[in-house]
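User: My collaborator sent over this chain with a note saying "see what the structure looks like." That's all I know about it. Can you take a look?
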Amino acid sequence: MTVTAVLAVVATFSLGRWQLSRAAQKEALQAHRDAQTGLDRLDGRTLASLADPSLMLDREVALRGTWIAQQLVFLDNRQMHDKQGFYVVTPLQLQDSAGVILVQRGWVARNFLDRTAVPEVPTPKGTVDIVGRIVPPPSKLYELGAEQPGRIRQNLDLVKFRAETGLPLLTAVSVQQIGTASDGLLRDWPRLATGVEKHYGYAFQWFALSALITILYVWFQVVKRFIFPRRT
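Assistant: Without extra context I'll predict from the sequence alone. Here is the result:
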């Protein structure tokens, strides 16, 4: 009984400390991302030359390039203002660079009477200038079956999309276009959550379980046996 109780206390206490360490890591990551928001905007050439652009998450960029309109994709079941619709994503060929970056251009409502219909989204030809923020690739939603090519998709794996299109696409990050609504697209993007509160909650549960095991062991194995033994 003693060995079991000690192992249980050590295990639950260790899991609590591990959750605290995960929270500390995510807080440090958030601090790093917050620091990026106050720095100068990167240009397209600098973005394409970064060895690890994921270290620049939340950094603003000012990009000049050309939309690759034939590869425009509508990501289905995306919310904005508590409404369902599409995220419109389009590759942007960066000027003065061979690199291509996927741009999350904004959100548009869908036609619920015809789920195969897509809205008309103006895609300017020629050179465009956009301002955006470096973010991870579009988040993945639960999907039955393998990802299917087409204009409407549930998810978009950038590695597979690069192979599918043959574009020199950056696969570690994408860019969320920011600014006022244009081209019929809304851009009230949700901020990325770190989930720190979840780790603190799990840590509290593990520490509470560790304390409970200790209290029960002391009560039944020490107090009741030696301090208040049962009278017969």
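A starting point for your reply to your collaborator: The chain has a mean pLDDT of 87.
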